[in-house]
Amino acid sequence: MIVAIDSHMHGDILLKQDRDFPARYRDNSIGGIIWSYNENIHNASDYTIYWNYLKNIAEELSEKNSPFFYKIGIHPRTICQELKNTKKLTTELKRALETHMKNPKCLGIGEIGLDGEDEIQEKIFIEQLNWCINYLPENKRIGIHTPRKNKYKITQKILDILNNYKSLHKQIVIDHVELNTIELVKKINVQIGITLQEGKSTKDDVEEVVNNNLYDINKVMLNSDSGKIISKPYIDFVTGKYLRPEEKAKLLKHNIISFYNLEEHLS
Fold first, then answer.
1. Three-class SS of residue 2?
2. Nearest to 254 by CA among 218, 223, 225, 224
3. How many CA atoms within 13 Å lie on the side-chain side of 177?
4. Distance between alpha carbon 3 and the CA centroid of its chain, in Å?
5. What's the domain count of the chain?
């Protein structure tokens, strides 16, 4: 029985750096949701190849280890030149998105969003939101990236854009939320992700959110955002004695199961 689901991680990158990572997750009873991020995208067709790769990884890891799932999308830092020129999703990409949404291992779109003040990033973000408005199934979810730099200002820009997509709010998780942006995100009443990683949030930050009631605890999910290495702060939180057991279980497991409708996949 799993004790946690890492609600945002990059299992495809981890596998290239640490072949033992699945065993570490299994030994600590941790599952994972792999979000889309690939810097080696040269044209629009490469996204579809990469998304199929994520599907295969999620399926293969689940067979031998803890349960894994995946999300697909165009990260603001991985926009290829072809899309920079057109600022539109190709027909091939739209078809690929629709196909993956039929796979129960695919939990939706992510990660999308903004990483800076960039017109192209904004247009591709909006293109993906427009696709979601028209085609995203109600049981699928949208994972939104917020950046390390200029976080407050860019988060506000993301929220301004999302105000035009109110019907999607119930399907959205805004990730990498920190203490200085949590009040901002409260304005639109979405799920939030808090990343336990060096340079991002700490266990003390999580305790402050919970103990001071900074956000509805039923709408908070913890993650590692692990890529090249496994996040030690996340693993320490999973295995350590922090918060009351019922609070910890919500942040690491139950809220994630509820938001992503994973009950039947984990029974």
1. coil
2. 218
3. 27
4. 19
5. 1
pLDDT digits (tens, 9 = 90+) for 55-87: 999 999 998 878 999 999 999 999 999 999 998
Q: Is the pLDDT of residue 267 over 70?
A: no
Q: What is the tens place of the pLDDT at every residue in 146-177?
A: 998 999 999 999 999 999 999 999 999 999 99
- For residues 111 and 108, give the distance between their C-alpha atoms in angstroms, rounded to a whole number: 9
Residue 94 carries which side chain, given as an amino acid letter? K
Residue with tokens 């266990």: 203
Burial degree of 190 (CB within 10 A; 0-12, 13-18, 19+): buried
Q: What percent of the chain has pLDDT over 90?
A: 93
Closest alpha carbon to 210 in 240, 234, 245: 245
What is d(CA 66, CA 146) in angstroms, rounded to the nearest whole number?
28
Task: Give 14-54 as a DSSP string.
Answer: HHHH-TTHHHHHHHTTEEEEEPP--S---SHHHHHHHHHHH
Is 238 in contact with 226 (CB distance < 8 Å)?
no
List the domain range (segments joined by +) for residue 101: 4-266
The residues, any chain, with a CB within 8 Å of residue 184's CB and separated by 6 or more, are 152, 155, 156, 159
- Angle between helix 119-135 and helix 91-100 axes, rounded to 10 deg: 50
pLDDT tens digits for range 184-212: 999 998 999 999 999 999 999 999 999 99
Which tokens belong to 127? 């293109």
CATH of the domain at 72: 3.20.20.140
The secondary structure of residue 77, as a DSSP letter, is T
